[in-house]
Specification:
alpha/beta
């Protein structure tokens, strides 16, 4: 039987496709109806920016706040020093405390676009688990917390089991991660009354651990909710492009590149992505997703504008759309394209077109750039590029040069 939630938040989660599983749907629904519910998602600081793969869960926190509850963004200043082993084939490289703090600063910029932080009842909070993890006494922690964990049960979790089944090493350091994450939930409950942890479905075992620990230590009623791990209809992991991750920080991925990623959504994903990544009404998302022929392209432009507007602002979305129309419909250059500005000193003796293609982010390496040229996928100012040995000098850059890889990826090369 399909569950019909009473609370607005769970209704949004279910109707828009955010919900994969919940530890106690009825209990959580009742708790959401009775009070302002603090809920958290944890983010380890492994990079200077979040990427599109994080965006679904950020939208969940945004909807939580919009429906009258309190989001907590838990920054893993402590757990990043250990590294989450979930479904990884190798151990994460260990980062210095300075690098971790720098990464957290970069990630904060993104959260501020989606959540309202402050001291009010439903204002978001940003908390760093280094506050309680850095000062732990190891023997006390083993005695008070470690005794609640069964190694037999921990070995049965799919995230650990898959690693062991492949006979890949799992260090004791990484094995501790799930205990530390469980302890986070306990501490957030003690300090802030946090009663819900959310995360991707790969975090189910870690979330359940935290719920069990909180119940055992302080007999607190807490809940877990997971979201789907998205792949696109063509099987790619969400957030990955031909050139790697699509970052959410503007200095790592500009508004036009971000907009273009969403504009290139496949027809089959358009309706689903509108529900997950925009705030358009569900009925409108379904109507747009059901369009066929050329009309679906307008739906994709709406998707790109809505998602880009949330992150970078409506003006950036409008500029990206205008650039796309200039580039694609009129064959122009477009002022908002990703741009590489060369130092004139670099042009002494010229610079190879292969090098420029790589620097523009249109190929990962010189080898990839040469393959792109040999397969007739590269263009210079909309003309086919056939000579991989072409050299560009200052005279050629009297006007900006537009480089293209295929029909959808473009960049400008210019002088200051």
């Amino acid at each position: 039987m399909t569950y019909h939630p009473k609370s607005e938040f769970l209704n949004v989660m279910m109707s828009r496709g955010y919900l994969t599983d919940c530890t106690d749907l009825q209990g959580l629904d009742d708790a959401l109806m009775g009070r302002v519910l603090p809920a958290y998602i944890g983010y380890d600081a492994t990079a200077k920016s979040l990427h599109i793969g994080h965006l679904l869960n950020i939208m969940m926190l945004r909807w939580l706040q919009k429906t009258g509850h309190k989001p907590i963004t838990l920054m893993g200043g402590g757990t990043t020093k250990v590294g989450d082993p979930s479904f990884r084939s190798d151990e994460r490289p260990l980062l210095t405390p300075e690098a971790i703090n720098e990464n957290i600063e970069g990630m904060q910029q993104v959260f501020a676009r989606y959540l309202g932080y402050g001291d009010g009842a439903t204002d978001a909070m940003m908390v760093n688990n280094a506050e309680w993890l850095d000062g732990l006494n190891y023997l006390d922690f083993l005695r008070d917390i470690g005794r609640h964990f069964s190694v037999n049960r921990m070995l049965s979790f799919e995230s650990v089991k898959s690693r062991l089944d492949r006979e890949q090493s799992l260090s004791f350091l990484e094995f501790n991660y799930m205990i530390l994450q469980a302890y986070d939930f306990l501490e957030l409950n003690r300090r802030y009354g946090c009663a819900l942890q959310m995360g991707g479905s790969d975090q189910w075992g870690n979330i359940v651990n935290g719920i069990d620990l909180t119940r055992r230590v302080i007999d607190g009623q807490v809940f877990g909710l997971t979201s789907p791990l998205l792949t696109t209809s063509d099987g790619r992991k969400m957030g990955k492009s031909a050139d790697g991750a699509i970052w959410l920080n503007g200095d790592m991925c500009g508004p036009y590149t971000f907009w273009q990623f969403w504009r290139n959504t496949t027809d089959a994903d358009t309706g689903r992505f509108l529900k997950l990544y925009t705030e358009l009404p569900v009925e409108e998302c379904e109507r747009l997703g059901a369009l066929g022929g050329a009309e679906i392209n307008e739906a994709k432009i709406i998707l790109a504008n809505e998602v880009t507007g949330l992150l970078h602002g409506p003006e950036a979305a409008e500029a990206a759309e205008a650039t796309a129309r200039e580039v694609f419909e009129k064959g122009g250059i477009g002022d908002d394209l990703p741009t590489v500005t060369l130092d004139p000193a670099e042009l002494t003796g010229g610079i190879s077109i292969v090098q420029l293609i790589v620097r523009a982010g249109l190929a990962k390496s010189g080898k990839d750039a040469k393959r792109l040229i040999s397969e007739n996928g590269a263009r210079v100012n909309d003309a086919p590029l056939t000579d991989a040995g072409l050299m560009i000098d200052a005279a050629a850059l009297a006007q900006p040069i537009k480089l293209s890889a295929g029909r959808k990826r473009h960049a400008l090369i210019r002088l200051p």
